[in-house]
Amino acid sequence: MIETLEEYALAAEIISAVAIIISLIFVGVQIRANTKATQASTFHEIATLDINILLNFGSSPELARLITMYRDDPDSLSEEEQIHGFYLFGAEVRHVENLFLQNENKMLSAKNWRSRKALVDGIVLTAGFGALLKHPFSKFFDGSFIEYGRTQRKKSGIEE
To answer: Which residues contact 137 (CB under 8 A, 6 or more apart)?
Structure first.
């Protein structure tokens, strides 16, 4: 039985501490749920972008040819084709840059990143990416992504 004011204060402190612990556990559970929801939303948006890019590039044989040729051997294209190919490839690079940055910002789960990393690495290892690195427009891409691309290219033995 609580009989003194000091005992009431001690009981109140214990109850407060327990309440704080319970509220922190609740906040932790909510943060985990929000993180999963954010990652799911991010993955959905990325999948939508993947589909749109694939549909656009596949919408005509000429677009498909230009993007493929620019990716594999940009020097084999005429000057006019190189300009078109560069912009098509730039859109693809922007997409994989977004994937890279989403991963860097922990917006993708480890599982989702593993499934996308091959796409990112596949693009940065192309001849088209090498051409982009030499292009003045390369400064319009995120520096950490460009550095990642350069590092992956060096690891693969691709010279600049």
So the answer is: 86, 90
Question: How many helices, marked H, and strands, marked E, lie in the chain?
Answer: 6, 0
- pLDDT in single tens digits along all 160 residues of the chain: 557 888 888 888 888 888 888 888 887 778 777 777 776 677 667 667 777 777 777 788 888 899 899 999 999 999 999 999 998 899 899 989 988 988 998 888 888 898 889 999 999 999 999 999 998 888 999 999 999 999 999 999 997 6
* DSSP H stretches of helix in 74-126: 79-104, 110-124
**Angstrom distances, CA of residue 126 to CA of 39, 54, 93, 97, 118:** 29, 18, 11, 14, 12
User: Would you say the C-alpha torsion 53, 133, 68, 89 has a positive or negative sign?
Assistant: positive
Q: What is the rounded CA–CA span in Å between residue 84 and residue 159? A: 25
Where in the chain are the domains?
A: 42-155
